[in-house]
Amino acid sequence: MTPNEAGVADGFVCPITCLTMVDPVMLTGDGHTYERYAIEEWLRRGNRTSPLAGSDLGSNVQLVPNHAVRKAIAELKVELPSKSDIEEACGHKAADILDKGEPGPSKTARVYNEDETYIFASLRRSLYSLDATVCVWKAKQLCLSKANSCTSVDSTWPNTMKAQITCMKACGRSRAIVSGSRDNILRVWELPSSVEETASPAHLREVAALQCHSDWINCLDVNCAEEVVVTGGRDSRIRVWDTLKWTCNHTLRTDDYVNCLAFDRVKDGFFVSGGNDWKLLVWDSKTMQQSHEFSGHTYAIKCCAVDPVSASWILSSGDDSKLCVWSTKSKNCEVEIEGAGGGYNESINCCAISSDGRTVACGLANHRLALWDTRMWKLLQNLDGHKAGVEDLCFVRGFGDKKLVSVDGRSLKTWSCSSNDWSCQHTVSANAIACCEMSTLV
Fold first, then answer.
1. pTM of the model as a whole
2. Which of 139, 150, 396, 428 has CA atoms 20 to 30 A from the CA of 22?
3. What whole-number distance in Å separates Cα of residue 219 and Cα of residue 179?
4. CA 203, CA 159: separation in Å to the nearest integer?
5. For the residues of 129-170, what is the DSSP string, one character each?
6. For the chain, which domains are there?
7. What is the pLDDT of residues 308-346, one digit of tens each?
8. What is the spatial distance between Cα 52 and Cα 346, in angstroms, rounded to a whole number?
9. For the purposes of burial, counting CB atoms within 10 Å of the CB of 113, is it exposed (0-12), middle (13-18) or buried (19 or more)?
């Protein structure tokens, strides 16, 4: 068994190494718990900011053994990483796709077609840096490349910021990316309409930075008309933004952290939110009032999605390892699948529905992807290959729902379906993938 194979909870995994903690210690400056070796290395390198929040740690920095977490990990009876595993994770260099190569010869500029599809991911240059880089790949490059081939940096448009991105969505018509981060700021990025094809490509241009929440932004989504963006955070608030002026028009209150948001993309009639209060809330898009509440989960809801064909059902899941399908007509739970997260009832971190509504993909904490047939709600296939919990995934447009992209803390993988059998086609390996969201732009 490899470290973390049993799919331990996020609270038992060091946010720096992405491994189960052997010697957990609490950092007094931010209140978070880390692997002792990893946080000592962070401080030894002269960092005086929180690895998670980026806030100033102050002068009185102490490491306090977290005996409660150590005891809880011991009770799980999972195999712990060795010292060499921890040292390797702490010393692992950033992805080659960010750092390799010298600038090449200039080429003629070309305009990227509006119908091209792109894949977005946020990467961190190293484990000991707060810098996050938004990278963009052409979907054809990743989804049509040969298995195990390398990704070239030439087709990315990177931009770097001093913040850890937590969520990101694309606005296709305006050619923009909207991102939320742990510094509580909503950022809007503009994609170049044309770019010189050199080894030093054009950067994304930041057009807005909005201080909107009093704590981390956990999630966001964009409505079908791309007129509204909703953001949810650890301040238990949902904020509704006008994309024309980028002003906050509404603030909605919930009872706990908001972990996920999803719009109805058929009529833009509603959007849903899920969080640590175990509730799935339905909000009317016109009145911005709560219209319904679904209860049935027994732990935090981490992901949700709305049927893209008819918006007649909503999918939700989370830490209770339960997959729930709610009817928007009967207001009842039509399907409830216990233990959908795996044999140990691991968390389900993310989910996506194919454009034809026939397939659901779930990213599990036990490093797997699970594919479900929505007509009979039967498990189609489990996909193995990730080395950490799957944090986000999406079906890639333009490939007939036969291409899937997923990310964990260390790699981005593309999956391809041939004769109803899914397999990993391509891997971008990096110990620097920090963002758990990606989107497609058409």
1. 0.75
2. 428
3. 9
4. 6
5. --EEEEEEEEHHHHHSSPTTPPPPGGG---EEEES-EEEEEE
6. 10-91 (3.30.40.10), 96-441 (2.130.10.10)
7. 999 999 999 999 999 999 999 999 999 999 999 988 888
8. 24
9. exposed
